[in-house]
Amino acid sequence: MKKKLGKYELVKTLGEGATSTVYLGRDPFAQRAVAIKVASPGILRDPEKGKLYSSLFLNEASLIGKLNHPHIVQIYDAVVAEDLCYIVMEYVAGGTLEAHAHPGSLLPVDRVVELIFKCTRALDYAYRLGITHRDIKPANILLSGPSDVKISDFGAAIIKHASVERTQISGIGSPAYMSPQQVQEQSLDHRTDIYSLGVVMHQLLTGELPFAAHNSYSMVYQIVNGEAARPSAQRPGLPPVLDEIVGRATARELDARYPTWAAFAHDLAQAVRNHQLKTPRSGFADTEKFATLRGLSFFSDFTDVEIWEAVRFADWQHVAPGTTIMRDGEPGNFFCFITDGELAVSKNGTRLTTLAAGECFGEMAIISRHGHVRSADVIADSKATIITVRGEALEKASETCRMHFYQGFLDVLATRLSLSNQRLAAI
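The chain above was modelled as a monomer; its predicted structure follows.
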């Protein structure tokens, strides 16, 4: 093995296939570990396949710096030449979902739902940039933490740039995960990725594919003409809602398939919120957190990336009736949102107002120049769910995330001022 490739130090081989080798490398300038995918020299010299695989590397290289999402592998650098092609990417140490796509190594059901939910949001983000992945499969989804994923390998993607559309190459991808439209080489959009992710979800839940086949030709025939197995038929006891979600994601006809990533994500989030997964809950799933924040008007101008950032640094808790959230006169460098239940706001024993789901409170301690002292008591009237954001966490957030929080505070203050003026006018 070489010790260097360009400016990058090569540490070890991570994986090797027929068309490329992936190395663990180190970027001495950025001082970080990287993954480097290098095209096999033999492939580049092949008179038929050389141009094809150079095009795939060029396609992926065109995305450098464009896919900045917590659940997509970042592409840092690339070299695409006649005799050398390599892509430098974010290094993700957790392996791929392929390791959990077999009956003896399945992940818990609620974890599968959470991982697929994150994939739907990442692929929606890509779609909004004009990108259809076209090769979604477990081997292209990396585990970056206990319940986190990053989608990789956009070489086969369809990329639309204004009036130019790049890459609708035939014969690329894994037939078992292809939509009926893709195996028939029809025009494709994001719904082909929805189908592929539905197949991945089916396999992660059951350890089996929706169609069993001995070769690619048989697989293609079944995808176009066959009846897919329901997940619960291959793994009895799965909640019926998962049959419904997988069935709609992998519907043969486009009209029956999820029309948008948002619709797919919504059904996954509802299954978690409505406790339909029949799994014990040990806290708040990221699926529920993201869907909750996305549904609050305060976060309407936040991008998905900023929502995920807030999910990471906010604290979530259920509180019992009578619980004091804030106490008049006490310091406290944090603010909160209530997502369900009711809270009473009072001063010296006099009730001032009632807070309901969706409202923000305590933000004055964050934006005031005169310290972080509370000016009223806030006590739970009923069982409630509270999201807490601490000042020190907000200070460490990205600039755009912080900006949207402060814009949200201004909207809250403007609304309160308007209500106060209406009350005064009514006196």
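The chain is about 35% helix and 20% strand.
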